[in-house]
Design a protein that fits this description.
about 200 residues, alpha+beta, eight-stranded mixed β-sheet, 7 helices, globular
């Protein structure tokens, strides 16, 4: 067996494992968010905004959400296949809690300039991002700025996130994803209507 054949077999096994995790009903494409096409794979820009250095955000390969995000980024899975996995996943959100009081927890929000029409960040608008991580160890990368970590499901985070905020999952990781407010609004509406 050649190296190329071995790589293809490994890719196929990984894809099959992801499909097993997701379940076929999730991939049936019940929801179409293409009108809100407001997400961007590749979390390096957001990583820089949060102070995560390149190469620091490396996920545990057994983490289902990270594997699904990577498969969507690479085109192995449909673009929006990560959404159901995100809603059910347990996420770690870095923030600040005064005197360790859980009720005072505030997630770390970072302002990031978006690209303008001329593809430069200087012409774009600024956007507030909240970061969530697939594992607490990745959230700990922000411990200097945000020493507290809250554990929530993706559904809980999206439904309670203030309107107008964007969300980034695993900033700094190549598979990381930035989700703009428009898509978050569409997800909240579908959650409220029991469509998700």
């Amino acid at each position: 067996m050649t190296d190329q054949e071995r790589d293809q077999n490994a890719d196929h096994e990984r894809e099959q494992a992801i499909l097993d995790i997701l379940g076929q009903e999730i991939l049936s494409g019940n929801q179409d968010y293409s009108g809100a096409a407001a997400f961007n794979f590749g979390g390096e820009d957001a990583g820089a905004a949060f102070g995560v250095q390149e190469g620091q955000a490396v996920a545990d390969p057994s983490n289902a959400l990270a594997a699904i995000l990577d498969a969507c980024r690479l085109g192995t899975l449909p673009q929006f296949a990560f959404i159901p996995a995100l809603l059910g996943a347990r996420l770690a959100v870095a923030g600040i809690a005064e005197d360790g009081n859980v009720g005072s927890f505030r997630p770390l929000a970072v302002e990031k300039r978006t690209q303008g029409e001329d593809e430069t960040e200087t012409e774009g608008e600024s956007q507030l991002f909240i970061a969530a991580f697939t594992t607490p160890s990745l959230a700990a990368l922000l411990k200097d700025k945000a020493p507290a970590i809250a554990s929530v499901t993706g559904r809980e985070l999206i439904t309670t996130l203030r309107e107008g905020y964007a969300l980034t999952i695993d900033p700094g990781a190549p598979y990381g994803v930035e989700i703009a407010p428009g898509l978050l609004d569409a997800l909240r509406a579908d959650i409220a209507n029991n469509a998700l």
